């Protein structure tokens, strides 16, 4: 019997300040030849076993709770795990009856947090609504009037509203104005305004710095001078190389020493990352997303090329959401930077191995398994195990570096 392997991804859930409040765990089987994913109870049980037994769940969700879909059987027979580490998501497809409500009430009294998933109001849910802590509303499923109607219908119940599938900043602000407290979706990785917006002078300085750092003709001797023009960036780089993320034995006390230790390729990447993280109007979660994407691109590239040749993949991943940092179309930003053509083609056209890897990473982080070209990945020596291990490693790496970068 073939061992069943689980692809596990996470999707952040944000609070009103766009700080990560929790993660939903998303998963599927690695049997990509089957049209159906697989049995719901089996899937959820396997996720629990993988996430809570075979690895430290903190590697995936850090100190945040994990939202996990519960089938009827799991609600009736919950697994014996720390109730403070996860949120029970009650699927909208479950049959609502006295037995389900009794068990939900018992779980609530035992200290579990309960969320109703993909909620569409029906009076049959009234008993469960008096039990639940959180109600998730798919805002893509309704127009604005219907979203408002659901907010009014839910006011008599003591529940926190979570807007899911929030794809734009405009929808985020609209839901926030209605009283939603939690938000889930990919709005953070998109520019807030695209047309008619000028880049502020402070961001133009950062953009100019990035262009200098990405210049393929820049030499190591010039890097120190470029970075030294930004005192905050200089201090952050020194703190970074002295962190646990680097295994140096001697303390680095000067910018020149830090630059020489890192070398040209690494210092360009790290200075780019630190410059982006220094943009005060953007949440830390956006920098963590950029780091995770960059590292996963690099790790996947190492499945079919050497470490030095994987650097453009790291760069491509790191720059792939620049539009969200600058609120300007990505094409416009990339056109202003002296990037190699292979990186530009990968970023803008999904061309070549770089484009294939980037598209795979974006699809994986969104748990859009159907968008992954498994046959093309096979030609690059990338399978489901490589995908999952690189994803988990990139999350661990980005979380560790995110703490350093955020505090620097």
Description:
Helices cover 52% and strands 11% of the residues. The protein has an 8-stranded mixed beta barrel, surrounded by 4 helices. The model is unreliable at 32-38 (pLDDT under 50). By secondary structure, it is of the alpha/beta class. Strand 3, helix 3 and strand 4 form a beta-alpha-beta unit. The protein is built from 19 helices and 8 strands. The radius of gyration is 23 Å and the shape is elongated. The chain has 2 domains: 6-189, Alpha-Beta Barrel (TIM Barrel), CATH 3.20.20; 201-407, Hypothetical protein af1432 (Orthogonal Bundle). The chain has helices at residues 40-54, 58-61, 72-76, 98-109, 126-131, 144-154, 169-178, 201-214, 220-228, 231-241, 255-277, 284-301, 311-319, 322-326, 330-335, 341-349, 352-365, 374-379, 384-407; strands at 6-14, 20-29, 66-70, 86-90, 113-116, 134-138, 160-164, 182-184.
Helix content: 40-55%
Supply the number of helical segments.
19
In the CATH hierarchy, the third-tier topology of the largest domain is known as Hypothetical protein af1432
- The CATH class designation of the largest domain is Mainly Alpha
Output the helix-strand order.
EEHHEHEHEHEHEHEHHHHHHHHHHHH
User: Strand order across the biggest sheet?
Assistant: 1-2-3-4-5-6-7-8
Number of strands: 8
Main pleated-sheet profile: 8 strands, mixed, barrel
Query: Can you tell me the overall shape?
Result: elongated
* CATH-derived architecture of the largest domain: Orthogonal Bundle
Secondary structural class:
alpha/beta
Q: Give me the CATH superfamily of the largest domain.
A: Hypothetical protein af1432
The whole-number mean of residue pLDDT values reads: 86
Low-confidence stretches: 32-38
Q: Tell me the strand percentage band.
A: 5-15%
Question: Roughly how many Å is the radius of gyration?
Answer: 23 Å
Terminus-to-terminus distance: 50 Å
- Number of structural units classed as domains: 2
């Amino acid at each position: 019997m073939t061992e069943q392997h689980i692809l596990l991804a996470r999707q952040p859930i944000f609070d009103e300040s766009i700080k990560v409040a929790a993660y939903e765990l998303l998963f599927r089987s690695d049997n990509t030849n089957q049209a159906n994913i697989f049995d719901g109870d089996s899937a959820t049980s396997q996720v629990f076993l993988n996430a809570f037994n075979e690895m430290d769940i903190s590697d995936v969700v850090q100190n945040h709770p994990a939202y996990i879909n519960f089938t009827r059987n799991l609600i009736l027979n919950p697994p014996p795990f720390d109730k403070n580490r996860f949120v029970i998501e009650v699927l909208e497809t479950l049959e609502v009856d006295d037995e389900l409500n009794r068990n939900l009430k018992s779980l609530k009294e035992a200290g579990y947090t309960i969320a109703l998933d993909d909620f569409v109001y029906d009076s049959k849910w009234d008993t469960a609504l008096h039990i639940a802590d959180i109600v998730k509303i798919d805002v893509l499923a309704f127009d604005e009037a219907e979203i408002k109607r659901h907010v009014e219908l839910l006011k008599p119940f003591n529940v926190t509203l979570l807007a899911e599938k929030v794809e734009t900043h405009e929808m985020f602000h609209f839901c926030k104005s209605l009283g939603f407290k939690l938000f889930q979706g990919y709005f953070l990785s998109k520019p807030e305004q695209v047309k008619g917006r000028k880049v502020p002078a402070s961001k133009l300085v950062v953009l100019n710095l990035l262009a200098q750092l990405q210049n393929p003709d820049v030499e190591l001797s010039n890097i120190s001078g470029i970075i030294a023009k930004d005192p905050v960036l200089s201090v952050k780089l020194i703190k970074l190389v002295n962190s646990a993320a680097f295994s140096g034995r001697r303390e680095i006390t000067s910018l020149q020493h830090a630059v020489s230790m890192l070398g040209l390729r690494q210092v360009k990447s790290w200075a780019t990352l630190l410059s982006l993280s220094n943009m005060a109007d953007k949440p830390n979660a956006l920098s963590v997303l950029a780091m995770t994407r960059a590292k996963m691109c690099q790790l996947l590239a190492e499945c079919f090329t050497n470490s030095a040749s994987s650097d453009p993949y790291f760069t491509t991943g790191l720059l792939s959401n620049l539009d969200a940092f600058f609120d300007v179309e990505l094409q416009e930003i990339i056109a202003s930077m002296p990037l190699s053509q292979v990186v530009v083609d990968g970023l803008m056209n999904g061309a070549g191995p770089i484009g294939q890897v980037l598209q795979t990473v974006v699809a994986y982080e969104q748990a859009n398994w159907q968008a992954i070209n498994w046959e093309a990945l096979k030609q690059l020596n990338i399978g489901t195990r490589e995908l999952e291990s690189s994803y988990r490693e990139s999350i661990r790496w980005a979380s560790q570096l995110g703490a350093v970068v955020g505090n620097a």
